[in-house]
Design goal:
By secondary structure, the chain is α+β, with helices and mostly antiparallel strands. It has a single domain (about 5-250), classed as Double-stranded beta-helix (4-Layer Sandwich). It has helices at about 5, 20-35, 115-120, 175-190, 245-250, and strands at about 35-40, 50-55, 70-75, 85-95, 100-105, 125, 150, 160, 165-170, 190-195, 200-205, 210-215, 225-235. About 40% of the residues are buried. Bound molecules: 2-oxoglutaric acid and fe (ii) ion. 2-oxoglutaric acid binds near residues 77, 101, 211, 213 and 227.
């Protein structure tokens, strides 16, 4: 990738990038097509299928990908929704300070049996993160309002959904709170850095890996960190409204 052809990092995800950035988007979409179908969200970045991760002035301390000063806590991408992606693809156009993306995983077999059982029950609430404008959600979308399980399936192939900032237990459910704390402590302890360099492309398996980003100082000089991102689902039929999460996530 030629940095001189890339042009300026846009000041906002709404601003179009240059031709080289569009080409990067095509490359990311081609790789994504090997894994499944790319999806976008009506409620996120104006419904773009290719989204941009870049620092935006005014969002430095937010809980969104355009934040910077504040660490973006680990999360399953769109953990609140049964329609969330199976993979998140990230293509690094620019990362001048080597700011790390973070990754973590649950060691389900190492969790105490009681904790595992509790996490597998519908005793947790995950609200939509601030990257979504839920006012734009279609009527009747109850995503994030029903209690859900955080682990589904057998220990050796469990599907995990969690968001460090957006997960709660039903008030008064102390056993669920304890289980949540044990899981979150494990995810905190397993967190490691992945420094994406210009031209690096990675796909995160959103079914068993959580990801986030360390904090950094934005420059707002057109040379800031800039990733292109795509959400991929392996089964488009699952994005049909009305299907319950247990139908969606059953492991055969
Ligand atoms: O900036 C990053 O490295 C990752 C941000 C993130 O969580 C995302 O794009 O979904
Ligand atoms: Fe993310």
């Amino acid at each position: 990738m030629r940095d001189d052809l890339l042009g300026r990092t846009p000041a906002h995800w709404r601003d179009p990038g240059g031709e080289e950035a569009a080409l990067g988007g095509f490359v990311l979409m081609l790789w994504a097509a090997l894994l499944g179908d790319a999806i976008g969200w009506t409620t996120q970045q104006d419904g773009h299928i290719l989204t941009d991760v870049l620092p935006v002035a005014g969002f430095e301390n937010g809980d969104v990908s355009s934040s910077s000063h504040k660490e973006l806590s680990w999360h399953t991408e769109d953990a609140f929704s049964p329609f969330r992606a199976d993979y998140v693809g990230l293509y690094c156009l620019r990362n001048p300070d080597d700011t790390p993306t973070t990754l973590s995983f649950a060691d389900v077999a190492a969790l105490p049996g009681r904790v595992r059982e509790t996490l597998a029950q519908r005793r947790f609430l995950i609200r939509a993160d601030d990257a979504h404008d839920m006012n734009l959600a279609s009527g009747g979308d109850a995503s994030g309002e029903e209690a859900v399980a955080l682990l589904v399936g057998p220990a050796e192939a469990a599907v995990l959904r969690a968001d460090r900032d957006c997960t709660e237990v039903i008030p008064g459910d102390d056993q669920a709170r304890e289980a949540l704390e044990v899981l979150f402590a494990q995810l905190d302890a397993n967190l490691y850095d992945l420094r994406l360099a210009q031209g690096d492309l990675c796909f995160v398996d959103n079914r068993n890996v959580v990801h986030g980003r360390r904090s950094f100082r934005p420059r707002y000089d057109g040379r800031d960190r800039w990733l292109r991102r795509v959400n991929v689902t392996v089964d488009l039929r699952r994005t049909r409204p009305g299907r319950s999460d247990s139908d969606d996530r059953r492991i055969g």
